[in-house]
Amino acid sequence: MPVDTVPYDRAAVLDTEEAIAAYLGEAFSHGDLAVIAHALGVVARARGMTQLAREAGLERAGLYKSLATGGNPELGTVLRVMRAMGMRLSVEKLAASSAKRRRGSHAVSGRARLRPGRSGRRATG
Questions:
Q1: How is the chain split among helix, strand and coil, in percent rounded to 5?
Q2: How many Å apart are CA 48 and CA 91, to the nearest integer?
Q3: Which DSSP string do the residues of the chain spell out, in sequence order?
Q4: Residue 115 main-chain phi, psi, to 5 deg
Q5: Kind plus residue range of the DSSP H or E element containing 102
Q6: How far apart are CA 125 and CA 112, in angstroms?
Q7: Which of residues 90 and 103 earns the better pLDDT score?
């Protein structure tokens, strides 16, 4: 007898600022733009794509395209989306052994850490 299953939607479990920050922080720690864009897309769906696009000053269709699988969002788009989410990026120096392993790769330099802030405002601290 077949087992009934339902697709897992990560957006459904991202219901707190802390959960969103942890999810995005993990995505940024991989240093892979495709993973980052996907994670931003999941969070955008959790927050409401139309509302987030409006708050970021972007067109909804353009935001969908940037954050879709295979999308390639510009840094400015990522920063505007992060700000609209009430979050920002911070940079930390990598440990020497981590920096050597990443040299020559296309990984993001530094380690991104996200801090939740108030929606629509820049996070502080």
A1: 55, 5, 40
A2: 28
A3: -PPP-----GGGG--SHHHHHHHHHHHHHHT-HHHHHHHHHHHHHHH-HHHHHHHHT--HHHHHHHHSTT----HHHHHHHHHHTTEEEE--PPPHHHHHHHTTS-PPSS--EEEE--TTS----
A4: -125, 125
A5: helix 96-102
A6: 14
A7: 90
Provide the whole-model pTM.
0.69
Q: Where are any strands of DSSP class E within 1-125?
A: 87-90, 113-116
Q: Are 43 and 9 in contact (CB under 8 A)?
A: no
* Six token digits for residue 84: 């609209």
State the amino acid at position 76 in one-letter form.
G
- Distance, in Å, from the CA atom of 39 to the CA atom of 45, rounded to the nearest integer, reads 10
Phi, psi at residue 74, to the nearest 5°? -75, 160
C-alpha span between 73 and 62 (Å, rounded): 10
* Per-residue model confidence as pLDDT tens digits over 18-60: 999 999 999 999 888 889 999 999 999 898 999 999 999 999 9
